[in-house]
Design goal:
about 300 residues, alpha+beta, Transferase(Phosphotransferase), domain 1, about 15% strand
Length: about 300
């Protein structure tokens, strides 16, 4: 999070920009306020991408599809302008740390919390896939933990099903260590790539590390394609489901809906499961170690990480 500079716009559509939350290859994200006072994360696409008619057409289709995604664990789209000189997309602002920050600071999450987290993220991905989209970058930094539960964020590289794993410049889409083998090998993509990434995220939540080692880059891509995941430390009750999510063959992976149902059934078998990270315990309950702090301890909006930042 950085103060605005002279190069940053003071307004984007109906939103007044407050600070710069982050920047990436596709654009800049601002914390902004609407005329009604609500906060939003507004992503402004870089001019060089906006000048590409093909990119602009894809952005228009994807913004329309993203606006149709509904569900409690997906950050809603508030508005967009795909025809302006620099197109933009606004989503609700989520005040809360990322899963990456929580695990880095407090260590792995308890098994029941990992199960609840996975159930909610799988439900979010099911909603994404029902809209005909794939996320393509599910990772700990793109999961925010709000007081009422997790949110899957940053649809900046989301595409329709059947998209390839490469950008126009030949770069691999996704984050090494969390992307699927078909992404690493530039194959056609579908919903199974997100399920693979979800499996990686759950390993991280349960153990504090990804299933394909700590290093990123080419080494992580090689291990993802050619080696089996390291599930050491994953709770026994989650190992089988996570292992099938991490199958090399996309056709062998379950759908996000099946993952959600399996985790929900396990939670019911165990009785009242712990709340997912970010959820506030019922009155009188004490959060288990690794769970989100009580209300009032959550970072203020000015301290919150940028959506998608790690």
């Amino acid at each position: 999070m950085r103060p605005l500079t002279s190069e940053d716009p003071r307004a984007v559509g109906p939103y007044r920009t407050l600070v710069r939350l982050g920047a990436g290859g596709m654009g800049v994200v601002y914390l902004a306020r609407s005329a009604g006072g609500s906060l939003a994360a507004v992503k402004v696409i870089r001019a060089e991408h906006a000048a590409d008619p093909g990119f602009r057409a894809r952005f228009r289709r994807e913004a329309e599809a993203a606006a149709r995604i509904t569900g409690p664990w997906v950050v809603p789209v508030l508005g967009a302008d795909t025809e302006s000189r620099e197109p933009w997309l606004a989503t609700a602002f989520v005040p809360g740390p990322s899963l990456a920050q929580v695990v880095a600071a407090g260590g792995p999450l308890p098994p029941v919390t990992v199960r609840a987290l996975g159930c909610r993220l799988a439900e979010a991905l099911a909603a994404v896939h029902e809209a005909g989209l794939i996320h393509r970058d599910v990772k700990p930094g793109n999961v925010l933990l709000a007081l009422d539960g997790p949110r899957l964020i940053d649809f900046g590289i989301a595409r329709h099903e059947g998209a390839t794993a490469l950008t126009a410049t030949g770069a691999v889409i996704g984050t090494p260590g969390y992307l699927a083998p078909e992404q690493a090998s530039a194959g056609p993509l579908g919903p199974p790539c997100d399920v693979f990434s979800l499996g990686c995220v759950l390993v991280y939540a349960a153990t504090g590390r990804g299933p394909f080692g700590e290093g990123g880059g080419a080494g992580a891509l090689f291990r993802t394609v050619h080696e089996e995941p390291d599930l050491t430390g994953v709770p026994p009750g989650l190992t089988a489901l996570i292992a099938v999510c991490l199958a090399k063959d996309p056709a062998a992976r379950p759908t996000a809906s099946r993952v959600r149902d399996a985790l929900a059934a396990e939670g019911e078998a165990d009785g009242a499961a712990a709340p997912a990270p970010g959820e506030t315990p019922a009155p009188g309950e004490t959060p288990a170690p690794g769970e989100t702090p009580a209300p009032g301890e959550t970072p203020a909006p000015g301290e919150t990480p940028a959506p998608g930042e790690t």
